[in-house]
Amino acid sequence: MKSSKPPRKPLDTLVKLGLGVLIGGFLMIGLGMFLSRPDRTIPPYSVGAQDGITVLIHTPSWTSDPEIRTLLERFRSKAQETRNFAPMKIRPTTPDDPQGRYQRMKLYVFSDHQWAEAEKLRRYLSESTEKEDMEFKRLFESMVRGGLSIDLKEVVGWLGPVGGQRIGQADSEVEWLFNEPARLTHEIL
């Protein structure tokens, strides 16, 4: 004996519309997440403080020197290709310059976020020559993991502390990554 199933009714138009919206919503969310994903070719970083042309960024403490090198190379390529660091989360360093918003920049990379705070940057940039402040500046420079200097003439990048000496380490030195003439002297948006 054969059992006969009743014929299936076609889906109602409203149900089809609802399923279309649901599936379309998930596709849009997935596409948006894909298009706005973080750049995985460079280590995660954030801008800790910025004052004038000086920018402090910090990376996680486990970031290796080769990863910091990759990050500095990315900043170098931005300097040589567009001079636009807005996509890299940096506010304009020379906002009133008619040639562009990023004509000069000093960037320091830290692995300890406490060294990339605004108060430490203000203290480092102060013109005080008191012994305590000079010692702080020396300690600040010894905590730098790498850096980048950009002006109208050259682009320079390095790994290691400013001045080449970490406090408490006799064998620390600077590894120069690049020192090249600036190919671009104005910002390209």
Provide mean pLDDT, rounded: 87
Count up the helices.
Answer: 4
Q: Using the alpha-carbon principal axes, give the shape.
A: elongated
Into how many domains do the coordinates divide? 2
Structure description:
The chain is α+β, with helices and mostly antiparallel strands and 189 residues long. It has 2 domains: 11-40; 46-181, no CATH class. The chain contains 4 helices and 6 strands, in the order αββαβααβββ. A 6-stranded mixed beta sheet has the order 1-2-3-4-5-6. The mean pLDDT is 87.
Features:
189 residues; alpha+beta; 2 domains; six-stranded mixed β-sheet
Q: What's the structural blueprint in terms of helices and strands?
A:
Elements: H1 13-35, E1 46-51, E2 54-58, H2 65-81, E3 105-110, H3 118-125, H4 131-142, E4 146-150, E5 154-159, E6 175-181
Parallel strand pairs: 2-3
Antiparallel strand pairs: 1-2, 3-4, 4-5, 5-6
